[in-house]
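Hi there,

I know you've been waiting on this one. I reran it after we fixed the sequence typo, so this is the corrected version. Both the input and the resulting structure follow.
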Amino acid sequence: MQGRESEYGNSYVLFRPTPAELQEGFDATIHFVATRFEHKVPLDSASTKRVAMNDSRPPDLQRYLEPDKLVPLNGVIADLAKELTAGDTTTLAKARHIYDYVLATMRYDKSGEGWGRGDAVWACTLN
């Protein structure tokens, strides 16, 4: 069965093996092309001032500022953010310090559990 999910309009394929296929085993192959789109915000001073003065956010981006199961905004993440942004007075300065931390401390490591799932606590406490 093919379909399209409602939130982003992504296409999907659903395969339901028969009981016999489940018992005997089967091979499944799918080929696809993925296109990713980047959301960029210019960091020149005029654009930054407009963003800083405007507290409203586009509804399609608001959900990325909210917590979820693998990206909590409390506990270890909140403590780390407070530590990294202590003394910062602008949103841009806070973002830069958090970005610099991620760039300096993140590493590609597939040991243990939690990697590859978007688990922010696992990623931020991996030292």
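Quick highlight: The first helix runs from residue 19 to 24.

Best,
R. S.
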